[in-house]
Amino acid sequence: MNRRDLIKNIAILTAASFVGADLFLVGCKSDKRDNFTPFDINFFDEVAETIIPKTETPGAKDAETGKFMALFATDCYNDTDKENLRKGITKMNEASENKFGSSFMEITKTQKQELLIVIDADAKKYNRQKREEEAIHYFTMMKQLTLLGFFTSEAGATQVLRYKPVPGKYEGSIPYKKGEKSWA
Question: 170 falls in which pLDDT band (50, 70, 90)?
Answer without folding.
Answer: confident
